[in-house]
Amino acid sequence: xxxxxxxxxxxxxxxxxxxxxxxxxxxxxxxxxxxxxxxxxxxxxxxxxxxxxxxxxxxxxxxxxxxxxxxxxxxxxxxxxxxxxxxxxxxxxxxxxxxxxxxxxxxxxxxxxxxxxxxxxxxxxxxxxxxxxxxxxxxxxxxxxxxxxxxxxxxxxxxxxxxxxxxxxxxxxxxxxxxxxxxxxxxxxxxxxxxxxxxxxxxxxxxxxxxxxxxxxxxxxxxxxxxxxxxxxxxxxxxxxxxxxxxxxxxxxxxxxxxxxxxxxxxxxxxxxxxxxxxxxxxxxxxxxxxxxxxxxxxxxxxxxxxxxxxxxxxxxxxxxxxxxxxxxxxxxxxxxxxxxxxxxxxxxxxxxxxxxxxxxxxxxxxxxxxxxxxxxxxxxxxxxxxxxxxxxxxxxxxxxxxxxxxxxxxxxxxxxxxxxxxxxxxxxxxxxxxxxxxxxxxxxxxxxxxxxxxxxxxxxxxxxxxxxxxxxxxxxxxxxxxxxxxxxx
Amino acid sequence: xxxxxxxxxxxxxxxxxxxxxxxxxxxxxxxxxxxxxxxxxxxxxxxxxxxxxxxxxxxxxxxxxxxxxxxxxxxxxxxxxxxxxxxxxxxxxxxxxxxxxxxxxxxxxxxxxxxxxxxxxxxxxxxxxxxxxxxxxxxxxxxxxxxxxxxxxxxxxxxxxxxxxxxxxxxxxxxxxxxxxxxxxxxxxxxxxxxxxxxxxxxxxxxxxxxxxxxxxxxxxxxxxxxxxxxxxxxxxxxxxxxxxxxxxxxxxxxxxxxxxxxxxxxxxxxxxxxxxxxxxxxxxxxxxxxxxxxxxxxxxxxxxxxxxxxxxxxxxxxxxxxxxxxxxxxxxxxxxxxxxxxxxxxxxxxxxxxxxxxxxxxxxxxxxxxxxxxxxxxxxxxxxxxxxxxxxxxxxxxxxxxxxxxxxxxxxxxxxxxxxxxxxxxxxxxxxxxxxxxxxxxxxxxxxxxxxxxxxxxxxxxxxxxxxxxxxxxxxxxxxxxxxxxxxx
Amino acid sequence: xxxxxxxxxxxxxxxxxxxxxxxxxxxxxxxxxxxxxxxxxxxxxxxxxxxxxxxxxxxxxxxxxxxxxxxxxxxxxxxxxxxxxxxxxxxxxxxxxxxxxxxxxxxxxxxxxxxxxxxxxxxxxxxxxxxxxxxxxxxxxxxxxxxxxxxxxxxxxxxxxxxxxxxxxxxxxxxxxxxxxxxxxxxxxxxxxxxxxxxxxxxxxxxxxxxxxxxxxxxxxxxxxxxxxxxxxxxxxxxxxxxxxxxxxxxxxxxxxxxxxxxxxxxxxxxxxxxxxxxxxxxxxxxxxxxxxxxxxxxxxxxxxxxxxxxxxxxxxxxxxxxxxxxxxxxxxxxxxxxxxxxxxxxxxxxxxxxxxxxxxxxxxxxxxxxxxxxxxxxxxxxxxxxxxxxxxxxxxxxxxxxxxxxxxxxxxxxxxxxxxxxxxxxxxxxxxxxxxxxxxxxxxxxxxxxxxxxxxxxxxxxxxxxxxxxxxxxxxxxxxxxxxxxxxx
Amino acid sequence: xxxxxxxxxxxxxxxxxxxxxxxxxxxxxxxxxxxxxxxxxxxxxxxxxxxxxxxxxxxxxxxxxxxxxxxxxxxxxxxxxxxxxxxxxxxxxxxxxxxxxxxxxxxxxxxxxxxxxxxxxxxxxxxxxxxxxxxxxxxxxxxxxxxxxxxxxxxxxxxxxxxxxxxxxxxxxxxxxxxxxxxxxxxxxxxxxxxxxxxxxxxxxxxxxxxxxxxxxxxxxxxxxxxxxxxxxxxxxxxxxxxxxxxxxxxxxxxxxxxxxxxxxxxxxxxxxxxxxxxxxxxxxxxxxxxxxxxxxxxxxxxxxxxxxxxxxxxxxxxxxxxxxxxxxxxxxxxxxxxxxxxxxxxxxxxxxxxxxxxxxxxxxxxxxxxxxxxxxxxxxxxxxxxxxxxxxxxxxxxxxxxxxxxxxxxxxxxxxxxxxxxxxxxxxxxxxxxxxxxxxxxxxxxxxxxxxxxxxxxxxxxxxxxxxxxxxxxxxxxxxxxxxxxxxx
Lengths: 490, 490, 490, 490
Hints:
Four copies of one chain form a homotetramer. By secondary structure, chain A is α+β, with helices and mostly antiparallel strands. The first copy, chain A, has 19 helices and 24 strands. In chain A, a hairpin with a 2-residue loop joins strand 15 and strand 16. In chain A, helix 5 packs across helix 6, helix 10 packs across helix 11 and helix 11 packs across helix 12. The longest helix of chain A has 15 residues. Chains A and B meet through helix 1, helix 2, helix 12, helix 13 and helix 14 of A and helix 1, helix 2, helix 12, helix 13 and helix 14 of B.
């Protein structure tokens, strides 16, 4: 449904390709699901004196709305290296305009641009220190802190400056940095967020998900290892290889954001060493094993998904029911309208009536008098779920059984996922009392995966590989929970 | 795939509701799939002297782009009756601006607005006659002919004038007309295109598909019978009923556009007395019965659809394979990007490379080394299909078997569907030689439904109920085939 | 000041030039003062089959805003003939969109486009007759009547059809018409509005004012004589001459709109056989002769104009004072802001305070303690004048004497000028009691020209050459004054 | 003419008024002539927690285009203090977007916004120092240097921090600064650029010219003295007075930019202690004394100005001719089109032909066979002048004598005026050889004011009060002339 946690961002960088900005544009199109509020591209070009310059175009809107002018790419976003970013705005549209990434600045080593997916846990503290030293800030993001750290480094080698800065920051970061002569990708030691490396002809790409390679017909090389940085420069083009540097000698255990598998990443992407769709099918399978749905009269169960994000889990769920000899059938019970774009929802009573119907309609023939297993990947506030179930009820099903392919969300994320405040989380509100949530949503039964069941589904992974903080309240990087979350988003 | 025939339009009318234009706006949103190039709404209001006036807003673009200003509905599109229209533009954007419906004119009985789905076969002849009598035309559409016929009627009663005009026209028309004091819906005697009647509180709605009722939480009352017109006026509001008049005493057999079931209508709509999704599942089922796919090594067959239009047929197909004891599995093998909106495709080599990848990506894990049954509802030019199959090949399937849930398209439609010219139709080009098409598309096997098989799938219908002209070349209303198609689209 | 009568329009047509639409664009730029609400250009081109087609672009806004895309002229408004139009919208912006000229239609002789300056007095009657015969109307303008009359002509020659139509209409019309193969200009028998003929290389131009020739470096050939039509076609290009036809054999006396000299036309244009600036200077001169301003203490009088429209009259006024040995000096006492464009006036109290200050500021040094003669060309409602005088008072002049270079406006115009309703005219409101107007405006003295004095100033003209209806209430073409003015603007 | 030096900017600040941003908007409208490429407003508001926040809206375009949405002021630019800025962009549109002022940042004392008119001569040096200390820069302007200097101050009092920063910078600066709780205005010790203080009810305003007070009906209090800063805070509102602090104890002589009198400032403004229009009239008077124009046949000389900037000088010129008993007459010989806005000049041959005619047309009647004295305030490149004189020649004057109310421009300005490069200056190009310039422009005679004559015209001023660097090459603040000008605009 629409009431989902929001991913913080998608990043893309390319070095050594003739149409760097165009490739970046296509990459951002493929990563649109990671951030739909704003996007930007910065391209490395040279001015008439041969001096490297950064040309940037960024705006609120969808990628296709922001980059809708051919001339932009012909005359302005030219050059053989570029980075780009998709983002969610957290606050008011106008305010957030200044927070649109990539950020570009100049410092004593020249131009610097950065695009960041994730959230720093010591961003606030570092910002305070910098401010006390006389730093001025243009944005309210923690990403700007990284730029200041690089600029204030006493080291002389730019790669070392960047490494030093990245060693000082804590939290989640999958980052691409563009300088006058190199592209750098880096991932935090726990590897919260995905970041991979690809190759397109002679050029190299660093980006959030492999689907951004696929759209460009680029080859997947490797994922960026947690706690490493990847350096691509002119030598890389000559040698057709890239340098990797460790950010630290200490080893910490991986803590992948499990929500990337549950909902954020595209099912056609490969992250954390696995295909997303496989993990998502597995979640559906375990959900059916542990929380099957049967018809009380022994009739066939109709399994439907909330399109499109739960389609794969629904397939896994129904297939497992069959294996368990529960008579069931996968059906398309909800049609999602994809033409609507940014629909203008009119105010007034009409709007409340229309509600979820703008996006969804039921296929009445498949639901009437049937026991329906409705598969969704997660519930945040529960308001959209409630509306959707009301809509389903109008098609007169016998019963509706809601199955969620992840556990109840009860704790805030400090590493880059954007939730409403704790108090708005339905599971927190009802004290994880599933019966009360079921009653509120008005379904005949409701089952979530438990944390253990969810981790069981994570084939080819150790149970320790994941951050489950939003479900468990166990934070792999300590955060001061007395402090409001906002302080981590300075 | 994208290479589909184009539906000519969607229409919506409402009479007797406070926010008539807002309801129409939501209706057009639900009908967006019937025409994505332009839309318009005309609302019946009164000026300061109490005289009825028509306020109209129409433009090129998606419904959500055209009606994106609340003030439009607050200050301008006010009043208790309205009609709206979605359309495809056939030619250049600028030229077609004047052809955007609804059309509004004034004549001696006051204001008149019309929105039309379908195409007239005697439009050209009637237009010629009118022009010779001194009529002036603003558009190049046959719809304008209807307005002239109404205005030139010697009859004094407006309903009779409209009836007389509708009796003179031939071809396909599902129409809504708004006058100073009534809403009229009418369908041609053969009932080519869908048109239904709904009720929202005290008000009445006439619209193309039931999904436009659902979005407004309106009740479905009935379909408009072929060869009838429905009159809704203030009396209807008082009596809570509407008048029906026959256009002619002669009876002709129904000739529904079978493509409405195959592709045009939304699967959640009910048209021609049946649920669209049911018919579409049945088409998939017959396709599997007659043209199953088996793995040459006896392994599991992976059934995938070209999302989203073929999803239902794929479900029917896979289910039937199972019934036939063919080991198969429904999978999501193609991901369709829905965020992209009106993507700006950049020019140059890059564009050619990116091609179909902007919209589709494969889920590699489910395709690799598998025998894939790819279900699509139709093929027009075949160019997009070819690209898509090339994309699938990159995921290394064992074999790709393409199954089409309709017959080869070989003849032009003169009743409202928009194809490329006959010469561009892949089936026409290869003289219906399926082996040659298979070779061109580079699939391991290719099967279409035959016309007979397709008609077999039309449960609850007589085989005679349908127009199959585009597959059979048999035209239920004679058209002069020596004449180019354009002459029917004056 | 801003509170001026509004001119109904400017027209431009060209035949036989390579960049016909570009020349038209520049012509409309020069005629922008005649209509600032909307503009349009239609260009005669050929489609791929060599068939003549009309491409049109028209919109609400300034010429520079509407035609701000080079591609429009490169790809769309191509061809060797074009006509254009500037207009004022009379009612709501949205409603009037359909009334933007040129109008283009097709009829049995092909394409037809028209642009019209003026107002028909029998438009309403003709429209009624046409409507009763079954005509349908797209606009609420009387111009559309002309198109119907042409289309319904029983004659076979197109020029004769047009002539017949023009013979049927009464009132004021300076018109350009474009057909598939000719450009026609025509002026009503009384010659209310200006229309002239020019030549640019081999091509011919017909346009409202000579300033539209000047901007294109075109040569002025002649004015179109009242009651004649000018035909320009391919023969004209060969023979380098144009045909003239009389609309009627009857002769009526000329009745030029005297407001064209007073305010509408640009001072650099030549109309009705004379330079506008000369007549305007003469009006100022007579104003000084008959209504001089002297300082009560014998000090120098400061003569200032309301810029820019009254600048020339002020020069004439001051020069005459000198001739009469009245010590005076021309100064710039009011600065008009020209950068502001379409200023967004914010609502609320602030807006009322700011008022006229958005456009005007005083030059304090030249006004303080001085007797000021303020020259304006006309007063309509008087509200802006009142505000402006309040503004001048803040600069502490000794006295302010307002002199108007035209008589009080007391009657509506039925021939194409756009006033507020009679009741809003300050002179009508105060029953032409100048002392009361003076009191309302808060000036030390107020004098208008009398009608006789105004006509005296019209050197090189007979006194009978002019329509003075708005000052005298004497209408050269009878209008039914019991009928509201609106009926003449159907 | 259009070929003028460009003023660097206009600034406006207000503290203590309910609609601070609206007042700023009107102020920027009045200052539009000082910068027409971009504008911005930042308003000081409070967030939901009562914390001061800065809301900013800035864009390329005219003030009326940028602030064209009422909602902006209702919902976003709220609060009781605001500053605004108009600017010229120096380079490409896209690049300069980041350089649009006001700039806003946060530092350890909270929010900081700045708007700057002028140019720093040590900006480049200071920037280099800052960069070496690890500062990062967002813009390429010297204004950003000031923000860094404030943020890096070791002092604890904010006013002292700002004072310290202003003491470090050299060059021309008329500045407004907004902090969380105060508005600060400051002028460099030489007072290159105007800056004045006004009062609107209880609130205080600091702005470039008095015309920005007039539009708001605000009272003029005083000019900001060179080398001082003005502090307005809540105490000022209580005491209804403002604090003034000296930037330095040292005294340097005033060096007003004389071009403010010649061309930049509006004639209705008061700057440097005098009315601009008075000084401009005086320049015209001295021009006539020293460089009169007489007709060779003793006939009347027609004095015309290049509207509107030279109107006042032309009045002074003609009046002096009369005093010298030279028979002359002031006429309007050139009409300037003010409707055209940002005219889209079409490419190709047509554009070259149209050239200056888009903006100007001659009034032929007043020029034919006359000796014309054409008054202009300055010549930069001379290209527009040349075109304009060509245009005048088409009206067949007897002779054209060009008189310039300032000396030849031969040297670049390093203090905030924007010229083309030295090599493009016509006077530099022809080595100040006026005869050659005359020949190039094709006038019968050409005379400039000498520097001495110009200074003679500066009544109520000492000759030392002015910077005449662009005419004399004598720079009041040393600049390294070997260095290109660009280095001063980092």
